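Appendix B. Raw example, untouched.
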Amino acid sequence: MRAQLGLPPAPESQVSLVKNTPLTPPPMKTESDSGWLGIGNLFGGGPTEEESYAGAMRLSAFTFGKDGLFTATLADGQVWKQSPYDDLRAHWTGQPSSYQVVVSSDMLGSHTMRVRGDQNYRVMRVK
């Protein structure tokens, strides 16, 4: 992009600052963004898949316990464990960095980890 704009390449000191920086999460939606009484997305018009993974972060590691539940470490160091109340089981076999995830807060303090190209899992923060 810089070349197309006729600008010199970015200095290495600047490039190194962003090499491992996680993507920023999308801005929080307000009630006015989601339609009448905050229920605008009930009838379609929700975010596209690309928009819903705009703040995605890659995994840096994952392990499975004897019970089949996973513990996943995100690129920023956060560690999340799958809830024992989740009936789903992940069957990940690829490199951790091949998985993009978004963790979001749900009602009553619970959390969901959405894995791009896979399922949504109930998770609890460990670290």
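End of appendix B.
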